[in-house]
Amino acid sequence: MQTPLMGLLLLISVAAVPACIVVIVLMLRNPPRSPSRISAALALLLGFPSTALYSYGWFSVTLGGPFPELCEDGNASGAQLTGLEQDHWPLRNACIYSDGSTVEHVSMSINVCVSVLAGLAVALACAAVFPYRRARHVPEETS
Length: 143
What we know:
By secondary structure, the chain is α+β, with helices and mostly antiparallel strands. It has helices at about 1-30, 35-60, 65-70, 110-135, and strands spanning about 80-90, 90-95, 100-105. β1 and β2 (about 90-95) form a beta hairpin.
């Protein structure tokens, strides 16, 4: 059941990125009254690629890809293969050898990119919410 849901999430994320770019370009041409709307659109623009990258990595871990075949029975130092490690967070496909060494098959840069994009998206979402709430709750001056 998770595979179709992750596939749908991947498709929605990939389709939403160009839509966010179009919305941001339109907002920059005709600026909205509140800059928090641009921050919210930028948060979505950063959040969707993060989701798409994670979904892509999730599929590479879950479906295995060429992973088990990439593990050699022994490494360069002669240690034998003792196990495979597959984790969904952080995304990890690793061959573990008897001498304690590992060979990673999902690049750490994918995890870093997902984390950085998601963190920036959360920061921009917070930056969009706080000025919006502050402007809404400021009492009007009376004369």
